[in-house]
Amino acid sequence: MAHEQGDQGNFRKLAASGLVLIVLIGILAFSGVLAQARQSIPGLQQSTPTYQTTTVSKGNISVSVTATGPIAAVDSTPLTFKTSGKLAQLKVGIGQQVTKGQVLAILDTTDLQTALNEAKANLDQAQANLTKV
């Protein structure tokens, strides 16, 4: 029985020593001592970073964007005209910037010129009839 108590006492001492060793390793690992010791062991060292440098130079930078989808204007203004008619000339293109007062289009005045000539003929006729009276 005394022998069993001696074996049990040795086992407790061994278990307590193992527990102390495990706690000590945990504390060392937590404090970073193992990280420093790691660098002294061949093959476990962390490689040092390498940097690539170049001299500063002046030049052009080009950046391109490729995308798909609909395109919409930031600003758009509906156009209204005093008279309707056919376009004789379009002075601006799609997406071109315009300024206030700039002529955007010219109407075909053929129909207006015909109406004016007709009105002048009627006036001349009326004046001629007036002189007869």
Strand content: 5-15%
**H-E order:** HHEEH
SS element count, helices: 3
What composes the largest sheet?
2 strands, antiparallel
Separation, N- and C-terminal Cα atoms:
162 Å
Q: List how many beta strands DSSP finds.
A: 2
The structure class reads mainly alpha
Sequence stretches where pLDDT stays below 50 over 5 or more residues: none
Care to describe what's here?
0% of the residues are buried. The chain is 46% helix and 5% strand. It has helices spanning 2-31, 33-40, 110-132, and strands at 87-90, 105-107. The chain contains three helices and two strands. The chain has 133 residues and is mainly alpha-helical. The chain is rod-shaped.
How is the topology of this model organized?
Blueprint: H1 2-31, H2 33-40, E1 87-90, E2 105-107, H3 110-132
Antiparallel strand pairs: 1-2
Summarize the structure.
Among the domains are: 9-40; 87-132. It contains 3 helices and 2 strands.
